[in-house]
């Protein structure tokens, strides 16, 4: 399950941040996840809870913000919503789409002690 390694990566990032910014406990964190990141949000919450045990994020509340997928369609010359990387344009059916947003998987904000 790759959500487990993502959760471990997040903890590692928090530990690095804690050293750099001198905090010892994470109270809340907001994680942005796009539909193109291929992450199961429920599985990620579950894994985060498991791997955060005995770490600085043990008592942290994880908020996952699901960012909508967006692409630029060359056919319509406009922005269109997408759910997957190789979706066709919902308006004109073209596959000439450039992803603008949706592959996010990053820590957006932290509340720390
Ligand atoms: Zn289009």
What is the H/E string? Answer: HEHEEEEE
Second CATH tier, the architecture of the domain at 2-68 and 102-112: 2-Layer Sandwich
Quote the beta fraction: 25-35%
- As a whole number of angstroms, the C-alpha radius of gyration is 17 Å
What is the rounded distance between the termini? 31 Å
Q: Mind describing the biggest β-sheet?
A: 3 strands, mixed
Spatial order of strands in the largest sheet: 2-1-6
Structural class: alpha+beta
Q: So how many helices?
A: 2
Low-confidence stretches are: none
Helix content: 25-40%
* Ligand identities: zinc ion
Write down the CATH topology of the domain at 2-68 and 102-112. hypothetical protein PF0899 fold
Mean pLDDT over the residues:
95
Instruction: Name the CATH class of the domain at 2-68 and 102-112.
Output: Alpha Beta
Q: Any idea what the shape is? A: elongated
Strand count: 6
Which descriptors would you attach to this protein?
alpha+beta, binds zinc ion, 2 helices, three-stranded antiparallel β-sheet, 113 residues, 6 strands
Describe the structure in your own words:
- The structure is a single chain.
- The chain has helices at 2-21, 41-51; strands spanning 26-33, 61-66, 69-73, 78-82, 97-101, 105-112.
- It has 113 residues and is α+β, with helices and mostly antiparallel strands.
- The strands form two sheets. Strands 2-1-6 form a three-stranded mixed beta sheet, covered by helices on one side.
- Strand 3 (69-73) and strand 4 form a beta hairpin.
- Helix 1 (2-21) crosses helix 2.
- The longest helix has 20 residues, at 2-21.
- It is elongated.
- The mean pLDDT is 95.
């Amino acid at each position: 399950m790759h959500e487990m390694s993502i959760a471990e990566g997040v903890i590692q990032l928090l530990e690095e941040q804690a050293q750099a910014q001198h905090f010892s406990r994470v109270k809340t964190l907001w994680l942005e996840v796009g539909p193109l990141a291929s992450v199961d949000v429920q599985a990620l919450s579950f894994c985060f809870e498991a791997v955060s045990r005995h770490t600085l994020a043990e008592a942290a509340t994880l908020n996952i913000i699901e960012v909508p997928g967006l692409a630029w369609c060359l056919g319509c010359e406009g922005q269109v919503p997408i759910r997957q990387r190789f979706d066709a344009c919902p308006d004109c059916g073209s596959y000439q789409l450039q992803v603008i947003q949706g592959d996010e998987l990053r820590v957006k904000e932290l509340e720390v002690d």
